[in-house]
Amino acid sequence: MNSRCALVSKIIPFSCVDGPGSRLALFLQGCNLRCKNCHNPWTIGRCNDCGECVAQCPHQALSVNGGKVIWRADICQQCDTCLHICPQQATPMAQTMNVEQVLQQVTQVAPFIEGITVSGGEATTQLPFVIALFQALKSTPALSHLTCLVDSNGELPISGWEKLRPVCDGVMVDLKSWDSDRHQALTGRGNARIKQSIQWLAQHGMLSELRLLVIPEHSDYLEEAESLSAFITELGDVPIRLNAFHAHGVYGEAKLWGSAGPTDVEAVSQALQARGITRLIPPALYL
Q1: pLDDT of 237-252, one tens digit each?
Q2: In degrees rounded to 5, what are phi and psi of residue 42?
Q3: Which uninterrupted H or E stretch holds 233?
Q4: Confidence category of residue 287, pLDDT binned at 50, 70, 90
């Protein structure tokens, strides 16, 4: 039995938006960016057992035992009150799971999915677990046909990607802004390492998708279209997914930001196409 563990925020057995086909999506808790526009902001931090959420749970699904916040899934109504009041941008519902426990979940749905995608938070902050999980999947005959993908912010150093490469079938990476200062304002960090990751993954045939999130008045893809297009061209034949920002689920100042509509996304699409970038995937829907 593989006892390597990870802190898991959520498992979605069937997802059609986390990579090609129907996939099991495994969301790991914790992120090394602090994106203002994050649509899963409760996956950023980790519970420090402060207990702030316990008294405010309307269904008494939370308690403190031995200094630890305990979550009772059997009486939880998934009202998300705890998520919205947590000062750590965490969730008391995150569960520690080992590789075998995740494999059991995958096995139950294996006949109906094409693969698994490990997301977050940021999946690569728990890299040893991801590697161990993918190794287990590849070495299990009944599961070895499943593709193993990672949805990442690209902050992992190249040495980490090299460790992941033998067992990973592809990585989807977000480039949230071209300009590093703009990226710092949006996420709390510059994007030099992320650009390096994107280039390395493309060079080694691991970049399955580059994602651009269009945020009216905040993303800079239009004004930086020339440099961005040159960068994308050097990556080779990589699909570029255009996502549309919406304020649903975000915290803080981003709740007041305007959502991206078809006109906003089309403007970016046309700017890239005019510079030879044609393998573009538009948003599946707008909210």
Answers
A1: 999 999 999 988 888 8
A2: -75, -5
A3: helix 225-235
A4: low
